[in-house]
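Justification of resources, computational component.

The compute hours requested in this renewal are based largely on the per-chain cost of generating structure records like the one below. Each record pairs the submitted sequence with a full structure-token output. That output is archived, and it is also reused by downstream analysis tasks.
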Amino acid sequence: QVQLVESGGGLVQAGGSLRLSCAGSGRTSSTYCMGWFRQAPEKEREFVAALSWSGSSTRYAESVKGRFTISRDNAKNTVYLQMNSLKPEDTAVYYCAADTRCSSTGVTTTPSLYDYWGQGTQVTVSS
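The structure output for this chain reads:
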């Protein structure tokens, strides 16, 4: 089992920044791909960003490219999402997730391919 705990959410004005963290524990592995997803009220969960175990391969949703940066510190079992130039439409609950099979499948944007999920952290961007 892998436990993931997000932190760093909060209320910020449009144009501001936040950094989310996702701390892993349990059977963590630096070979897992890690992703961030978000879900706004009455909307489906959507992909935000993901990266490979080495961090050399990253993928971003078009809506966040150039504003968000995903990174990881394998020594700390932690993944980060730096969010800059935030917009009201970024308001959502943000979840981190681990894909334990990505060594063979590559970095994926599909939520159903992620095996473990955190409980989420709320990000609210005011206009």
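Helices lie at 102-105. The chain is about 5% helix and 50% strand.
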